[in-house]
Every structure is written in structure tokens, then in C-alpha cells.
Amino acid sequence: MNNSEHKKAGEVPEDFSIQLEKTGKERTVELQDAVTKLENDPDERRRVQTQLLQLSRVFRDATDPIIIEDLSGTIIEMNREAEQSYGWSRDELIGKSIKVLFLPERYQIALQVRQQCLNGQEVRNWEGYRVDKYGREFPTLVTIFPLVGENGRIESIATITKDISILKKLELELRDSQRRLKEFSRKSIEALEADRKAVSRELHDSIGGNLAAIKFVLESILKKIAKAPDAAAVSLEKTILQLAETIKDCKRISANLRPEIIDDRGLLPTINWHIRRFSQHYSQIKIIQQIDVNEQEVPELLKIVIYRVIQEALTNAAAHSKADTIYIRLKKSGNYIEAEVEDNGRGFDFEEVLNPGDRMSGFGLKSMRERVEIIGGSFSLHSLSGTGTCIRIAFPVGEGRSIEFVLRMPKAQQVILMGDFNKWNPKTHPMRKDENGVWRKTVMIYPGRYEYRFWADGEWYNDPRNTLRCPNCFDSENNIIEVLS
């Protein structure tokens, strides 16, 4: 094959040049026809003008910043939102290089993306960064596309940015929340295992040892009772005393796990009970209570959490603060239940205590905070060396409503109201029967959706006045009540 059969590198074929010239002429004719039509047809001219005005308004009033730059990177147009986002006025920014919207170390990456656009590609949803007039850098989601002129060539570049600072902040908070939840779960498992170990040791060393000794003594008494009844009686008295101590140990272990009084009588009596126990061990510390809330104003879900926080805060103060006075405050402030434990001790560095390397066991400060926050409360701690410590928790409760539950059952001997609002506790809401055989109970309930039923003489009954029901896990139905805020 001779050289004439080859085309030199870069040489444009003759037929291609002819085709290109033909296409250019056709395009020129089309443009001339369009111009002539606009000049001769007022309706068409008005229609095009209206479209241009609409597009101009879309550009001007768009809720995301839009900037147009020429091929050299000089800003030639921008919309109102760009002024708001970047802090530059239109007169200040137009004519400047696009570089002013980047930190120097990030511009090279942006330049690579810009080059893709110059090659005719459209870049969508690229995560980058911009910087405003005052040096504040913020994350953005960017769409960049080329603007082509009448000759089919790229003449400028349009960039639409969306500030995703809030989204990134939420992502960080979500990751932090997930990390804290994992940490809380780990500590909860550790605390549970520690409690199990402690209960096991108590049962083995205290109750188990006592019961074994009682068994041994009783066997010995059986042998003595026929031969020496007086000695057997003395031994039996001692055994009864030992048995009483064992019963006391059982009650102590049970109270440490969950005080029965909080289910029987409520939060306020439980706080008083715990303070009495605390004062027996730490008589040198004065406890001042400032309680300004009624029992029924505290939702059942919050009672055990508030008690545990007060319990742990007192334990921490006694062990570490060297305080001689501790204040316990509990009140309803607006739509919040607030509790505080404040001491006049030596205080501490909160950040140092919450160091990630500190593996606190049990229900420590971090666990207190996470337990409060996991049910929608807030936890704050104020402490500086030498100034004492104040732990404050608050829970939104909304405005409670007094709801009367009624059940006509004249022959019933006992009727108990149970539901989500009292954690299905049979001890908290016994109903009273009037002279007409109608059982009544008024309960303070806070906004929410609750399921409930009546327990009458050992059988479950639904509320005949309430037709709103849902299935339960026992192949029957619960009533539903919705309390609006």
C-alpha cells in the first residue's frame, strides 16, 4: 500500500471539511430564519421574551447558590442566594477568580472536577468545600455543567452548590450517638454482669451460709429435743434470730436490686427511705430536701430513673466530694420535671472524669447521662475544683390531664386499673367502688398513646365505654386511650 493511501497524522479528510462547511451553512440559515421569524412575528417574540424572563427569574430566585464563570475561571454572573451564602455582594464578587471561594489546599481538587466539565462532562452531587468572604469553610454538594454557545462550543461553566453543613453535623451527631449507644450497651452488660456477680456472692456467702448453718442447728436440735428440751429451746431461739438476720439480708439484697417501696408507695417516699438509709452510714453529711412536686405529677416511666440518679449522685458525693451538705431538689417547672443533687464539696474536672480511657463501672456519670437521655431527658453537670458539684436532670412531660376511669361491676370485690401509664403495676392504681357499684379511679396522664385494662377478681376486663382497642400478645384485646397535648 503506497503513501497516497494513508492520511498524515492530524490531517482533516477532504470530505469531512466539505461536510463541516455544509453543516455550518445549514446552521447559519436556521439561525437567520429564527431571527427573521422573531422580527416578523410579534407573538413569537413576546413568547420568547416571556420564556427568557421566566428563566431569568428562576436563576435569580433559586434557593441554592448559582455562579457562572468563564473559561478562564472569572466569575461573570451569580444569583441572590450566592450573595447570601458567600457573603460577597454582586459588585464585589463578579470579576474575581473562582479561586476566592476555595482554600488554597482544596483548589487543586476542584480544578480536576472543573477540567471534567471543560471536557464536556456534567458533574452531579460532588461533595466539596467552599469558603465565604470571612474565611468560614463549609461543606457543599456541587453540580457543575458546561454552558454551550451558538457555535456549539463551551463558553462558560455553571456551578450550583448546596450548603450541607447541617446534614454533616447531623451525620456526626448520629455517629456519636451510635458510638455512645454501643458504649452504653457495653457498660450496661458489664454492669448487669457485675450485679449478677454481686448478687451471686451475696446469696452464697450470706444467705447460703446462714441457711446451711440453720439447717445444721435444726438437725442438732432434733437430736437434743428428747434428751435436753431446755437446751434445745435455747438453741431454737438462737436459730430463730439467725433466721431473722437471713430474712433481713434477703430484703437488703432485694432493695439494692429494686426498692419495692417505689412500686408500692411511689418516688417521694422512696427518696425519703433512701435518705434515711444514707444518713445511717454518713451521719456527718447533712441532707436538705427541697421537694416541690406531687407524686402524681411524675410519670411512672421517670420515677426509677430519677431515683437511680439521686442514689448514684449521693453515693458519688459521699465517696469523693468530702462535702458536709447535700441538697436534693425536685420540682415541676412548666412542662418539665427537674431534679438536682448539689453538694458543697471539693468538685472535680468533668472532662477528665469523662476521659474515654476511663472505664467507669456500674452506674457512673456517663451511664447516668445516657440513661437519662435515652428516654428523652437532658443531663448537665457543673463542677470545678473547690466549688462543689451540681447534677441536674430534666424531662419534658407536657401538661398532664386528669382522666377518670370507670367500670360498673357491683358484685366485684376488687378492681385494679393497669396500663402503660403505670407500667402494668397491680399495686399503684386500685379502684374504689361507690354506693351504686361503680368502680372509679382518677389518674394524671401525660400526652401520649396508652393501652389499659381492668383486673377484677382475678380476671381481665375491657372498658365497655371505650370501643378503641388493639390486640395484645395474649390473644385478647387492650383498650387504647390517646391523651393530646
Explain this structure to me?
- It is built from 12 helices and 18 strands.
- A hairpin with a 5-residue loop joins strand 3 (123-131) and strand 4 (137-148).
- Mean pLDDT is 81; it is low at 1-13 and 356-363.
- The strands form 4 sheets. The protein has a 5-stranded antiparallel β-sheet, with helices on both faces. A 5-stranded mixed β-sheet has the order 6-7-8-10-9, with helices on one face. Strands 12, 15, 16, 17 and 18 form a 5-stranded antiparallel β-sheet that branches.
- The chain folds into 4 domains: 27-163, PAS domain (Beta-Lactamase, 2-Layer Sandwich); 184-257; 264-396, Heat Shock Protein 90 (2-Layer Sandwich), CATH 3.30.565; 401-483, Sandwich (Immunoglobulin-like), CATH 2.60.40.10.
- The chain is of the alpha+beta class and 485 residues long.
Summarize the helices and strands and which ones pair or pack:
Layout: H1 14-40, H2 42-61, E1 66-70, E2 75-78, H3 80-86, H4 90-93, H5 104-118, E3 123-131, E4 137-148, E5 154-163, H6 165-224, H7 229-257, H8 260-264, H9 267-281, E6 286-292, H10 300-321, E7 325-333, E8 336-343, H11 350-353, H12 365-373, E9 378-383, E10 389-396, E11 401-408, E12 415-419, E13 432-433, E14 438-445, E15 448-456, E16 459-461, E17 469-471, E18 477-483
Parallel strand pairs: 6-7
Antiparallel strand pairs: 1-2, 1-5, 3-4, 4-5, 7-8, 8-10, 9-10, 11-14, 12-15, 13-14, 15-16, 15-18, 17-18
Helix pairs in contact: 1-2, 6-7, 6-12, 9-10
